[in-house]
Fold this protein.
Amino acid sequence: MMTLKDKIAFNCHRIAGGRAGGEALFSSDDICFYLVEPATGVVIEKDHALEGRSIAGKVLIFPSGKGSSVVQADGLYQLARQGKGPAAMIIQHPDTVLVASAIIMEVPLVDKADGLFYKLVNDGDYIDIDADEGRIVLEANPKIKADQKI
């Protein structure tokens, strides 16, 4: 039996290549990057699961993108231009607009993460994504008890 102090690797599927790491930020809602403030990376969409929280430099975990191609691509572009975009993204349901935007903006994007990943990941955990190798490494947030069994 592993404990949360261990690093755990999961398989995933590469959509947009690259490698990045950062703090996990989980959203139960789809994301429209046009409704994220470019200067701060703060989600400004009313009643969104991440309203008021910054996605800047985070490994963003969410179901899918939403919005037209113009607002998605421009939103992600404006965030990248300001240095406030996500470090990487893990999604459950890829859509053409989000995929194209991630490729153009060179943001690592993966899907098809092992189901156990979603049961174990928490906001604040450290995640390293190697999209080219199809691997996610999860390291539990140090605030979590190291002897907690999984």
The domain at 9-139 is CATH 3.50.30.10 (Glucose Oxidase; domain 1). The mean pLDDT is 90. DSSP finds three helices and eight strands in the chain.
